[in-house]
Amino acid sequence: MIPAAFDYIRAHSADEAFAQLQKHGADARVLAGGQSLIPAMRFRLARPSVLVDVNGIGDFDYIRENNGTLCIGATARDVAVERASWIGDRRWSLLHDVSRVVADPVVRQTGTVVGSLCHNDPAGDWTAAALASRASVVVRGKSGPRTVAIDEFLVDSFTTAVSEGEIALEARFPVPDDRSAGSYQKIERKVGDFATAAAAVQLSLNADGTIRTAGVALSAAGPCAVRVEEAERLLVGQKPTADLIRAAAAAAAKKSEPQADLRGSVPYKKNLAGVLVARGLRQALGRLGVTL
Amino acid sequence: MKVTVTVNGTVYERDVQPRTLLAYFLREDCGLTGTHVGCDTSSCGCCVVVLDGNRAVKSCNMFAVQADGHQILTVEGLANGATLHPLQQGFWDQHGLQCGFCTPGMLLTSYALLKDNPNPSEADIREGLSGNLCRCTGYQNIVKAVQQAAGQMREPVSA
């Protein structure tokens, strides 16, 4: 399977990439890791007539902490997160978990975090993690860069707030406080398959052990990753208990709107969403020294 | 588009369409058919090559134009003359293949794995190769082959 013909433009700077995207508008796509885009082009599900390759832009490839925010550049690979020096810190356990289950280890050497957010696959991993982490994405448009909260960034399946002629420059994850941990729970039939269901959880605790903040999101549970607001609302301010986890899990199962496919039926996947949220909450709490 | 790609130390200058995938460039434009195309959907890992010395990539999921100016290692570049690379010797000694179709991808994925982690555990090897499918061996002997190679590459046996 060979993609339809296209013009290839290698950008050497952010300005050049942006100018090319502005020039070609809806006909152009950004080529970063290409691990979703190229298969989509091969299946002719995507037929851009221009690809703007941003891999040669040196200052797009970074992961750094800046004023309480973890900034991930447009061409930072999944593997760079997996191998980051700080990734063992429990505050980053959600990102650590995700970085080890995205696609397969070879694909992770090329695939990018920002690209995955922009692809916005219904079963994406980084999208759910970004929701639970309350991340944001920096998008450069005609009037300059703007920061888009992830809830507004993820519009619909394969659709984001990045409009024609625009480019996503950076993903931003707030640095969690010391009493924070997360978890990513994913069921897949085999390595590299899309998730049957997946849940991302990020928690922080107050000194008295009550939950200060909670992020709960699902993947493979609708047109794109979805936040479970009711679970978050139930958790915040409460002391973690088995009953509380059950209630949050029930809220997740209710929120899940999966599609039936060879991976499972709708009732199975809805139930699984709840099971995975419960497991994620238990694991995140366990990482904070709370066992239930 | 004109591209210049160094494959196994040899410079290949070719005129390609942007849509030419690296796997087909290697096979059809360079005549290096050791890189296999299995699933054609980036799921099986048969087409893995090593980019710039240490990064395993699925060459059916990358355009040849993206490799312009880069170094590619394919299975043809592993052996040193008549002397097999320790990974190849490991696959030979441990019976790490049967039909051999997945073997080039297994070798190159393992090559990048050992560059990153010269002393992998069995679990590390199984995890590292989890994007490569083999329909013959059941993987056991592939893992043994990589373990043997890792040992030899850490402590080369003097000739």
The CATH class of the largest domain in chain B is identified as Alpha Beta
SSE string of chain B: EEHEEEHHHH
Number of strands of chain B: 5
Strand order of the largest sheet of chain A: 4-5-10-6-7
Number of helices of chain B: 5
State the end-to-end CA separation of chain A.
Answer: 51 Å
Protein chains sharing the most extensive interface: A-B, 29 and 32 residues
The unreliable regions of chain A are: none
CATH topology of the largest domain in chain A: the name is: Uridine Diphospho-n-acetylenolpyruvylglucosamine Reductase, domain 3
Architecture of the largest domain in chain B in CATH?
Roll
The assigned structural class of chain B equals alpha+beta
Over the alpha carbons, how many angstroms does the gyration radius of chain A reach?
19 Å
Describe this structure in words.
- The complex is a heterodimer of chains A (292) and B (159).
- By secondary structure, chain A is an alpha+beta fold.
- Chain A has three domains: 7-53, Uridine Diphospho-n-acetylenolpyruvylglucosamine Reductase, domain 2, CATH 3.30.43; 58-174, Uridine Diphospho-n-acetylenolpyruvylglucosamine Reductase, domain 3, CATH 3.30.465.10; 182-287, 2-Layer Sandwich (Enolase-like, domain 1).
- Helices cover 33% and strands 25% of the residues of chain A.
- Chain A has eleven helices and 14 strands.
- Chain A has helices at residues 14-24, 37-42, 78-82, 93-99, 105-108, 113-119, 126-133, 150-153, 229-235, 242-255, 266-287; strands spanning 7-10, 28-31, 50-53, 63-66, 69-73, 136-141, 144-149, 154-156, 159-160, 167-174, 180-187, 197-205, 211-219, 226-227.
- In chain A, the strands form four sheets. A five-stranded antiparallel beta sheet of chain A has the order 4-5-10-6-7. Chain A has a four-stranded antiparallel beta sheet with strand order 11-12-13-14.
- In chain A, helix 9 packs antiparallel against helix 10.
- Chain A starts with 6 loop residues before the first strand and ends in a 5-residue tail after the last helix.
- The model of chain A has no long low-confidence stretch (mean pLDDT 97).
- Chain B is α+β, with helices and mostly antiparallel strands and 159 residues long.
- Chain B has two domains: 2-77, Roll (Ubiquitin-like (UB roll)), CATH 3.10.20; 86-154, Orthogonal Bundle (DNA polymerase, domain 1).
- In chain B, a hairpin with a 2-residue loop joins strand 1 (2-7) and strand 2 (10-15).
- The longest helix of chain B has 15 residues, at 140-154.
- The mean pLDDT of chain B is 96.
- Chain A binds chain B through residues 1-8, 10, 31, 34-35, 38-39, 41-43, 51, 53, 55, 103-107, 109-110, 191-192, and chain B through 1, 17-21, 24, 40-43, 45, 48, 55-58, 61-63, 65-66, 68, 109, 112-113, 127-132.
